[in-house]
Specification:
With about 90 residues, the chain is mainly α. It has 4 helices and no strands. The protein starts with 8 loop residues before the first helix and ends with a helix.
Length: about 90
């Protein structure tokens, strides 16, 4: 019986990128849940003041959802291309 619990190293290497894309497609609220994408101004300072400052910085940061918009546009292009092809062939 195959062992599906074993993961390849390539999968582990690619997983952070897949998670980033999935979060970007979900939108800015999902991206802001994580402290991975916006660098902390003073990463060595673990004080409450610095963490509060970082949270305020995340709230003010602008997130242009290019990935989500591209996905939506490509899905629309697939649908419109299909309908144009059918019209061209008289279907």
């Amino acid at each position: 019986m195959p062992n599906y619990s074993a993961k390849r190293q390539e999968y582990d290497d690619a997983l952070p990128g897949w998670q980033l894309v999935k979060r970007c497609v979900a939108g800015p609220r999902e991206v802001r849940k994580y402290n991975e994408y916006l660098p902390m101004p003073d990463p060595l300072n673990k004080s409450e003041e610095n963490l509060a400052r970082y949270e305020q910085l995340k709230k003010r940061a602008m997130f242009l959802n290019v990935v989500g918009r591209t996905r939506t546009g490509l899905l629309g292009a697939v649908v419109s291309q299909d309908s144009r092809d059918q019209a061209a062939f008289g279907r």
